[in-house]
Amino acid sequence: MKRILFVMLSAILLASCVAPEIQQPAPVTPAEPEKKPEPSVRPSEKVPQPPKIQSIDWQSIVQPLVDQMVNAHGVEAGKVLLVDSVKNNTNGSLRTLKATDALMSAISNKQAFQVVPKSQVHVARQALGLSAEDSLGLRSKSIGLARYLNADYVLYSVVANNQGQRDLEMQLMLVKTGEILWSGRGDVN
């Protein structure tokens, strides 16, 4: 019985095997590339100009505001001031680092405050886990950073759209209480 079963399975196996057919390769005929007419270039077409980057004179914008702030009621000279980086709350692109630098320069020139150096601010941001790109965004974060640095005041600044006009809004806050001692606004041209 085993032999019959073995013979039948062998027959089925051999019947299912088919000898491969030898196929001839398809003939290859080289095709000639089509010649397309070259597009004509019109010399009268002008290339559009890229948008111009608007240069803002931050020094002239921040100087009058710094003058007002230094002479504000309740502000004590010689205290430690943290100048928080200027935030951009517009839908456009602004060079806020230049604005922050102009603000620090104008305050340093007045010699009314001891401005916390950028290097100390950078180290404090790292210690608190804030990235260099974090513009703090919230007044509470600015005050927390100022407390960490033992500053007496923090200057919070933001550029915002106000009825189609961009304004630089600044607030000088007392770090102990968060009280706003002075606020000012200037047009950003």
From TrEMBL:
<protein>
    <recommendedName>
        <fullName>Penicillin-binding protein activator LpoB</fullName>
    </recommendedName>
</protein>
<comment type="similarity">
    <text>Belongs to the LpoB family.</text>
</comment>
<keyword id="KW-0732">Signal</keyword>
<dbReference type="Pfam" id="PF13036">
    <property type="entry name" value="LpoB"/>
</dbReference>
<dbReference type="GO" id="GO:0030234">
    <property type="term" value="F:enzyme regulator activity"/>
</dbReference>
<comment type="function">
    <text>Regulator of peptidoglycan synthesis that is essential for the function of penicillin-binding protein 1B (PBP1b).</text>
</comment>
<comment type="subunit">
    <text>Interacts with PBP1b.</text>
</comment>
<dbReference type="GO" id="GO:0031241">
    <property type="term" value="C:periplasmic side of cell outer membrane"/>
</dbReference>
<dbReference type="GO" id="GO:0008360">
    <property type="term" value="P:regulation of cell shape"/>
</dbReference>
<keyword id="KW-0472">Membrane</keyword>
<keyword id="KW-0573">Peptidoglycan synthesis</keyword>
<feature type="signal peptide">
    <location>
        <begin position="1"/>
        <end position="19"/>
    </location>
</feature>
<dbReference type="GO" id="GO:0009252">
    <property type="term" value="P:peptidoglycan biosynthetic process"/>
</dbReference>
<feature type="compositionally biased region" description="Basic and acidic residues">
    <location>
        <begin position="32"/>
        <end position="45"/>
    </location>
</feature>
<keyword id="KW-0133">Cell shape</keyword>
<keyword id="KW-0998">Cell outer membrane</keyword>
<dbReference type="InterPro" id="IPR014094">
    <property type="entry name" value="LpoB"/>
</dbReference>
<keyword id="KW-0449">Lipoprotein</keyword>
<feature type="region of interest" description="Disordered">
    <location>
        <begin position="26"/>
        <end position="52"/>
    </location>
</feature>
<keyword id="KW-0564">Palmitate</keyword>
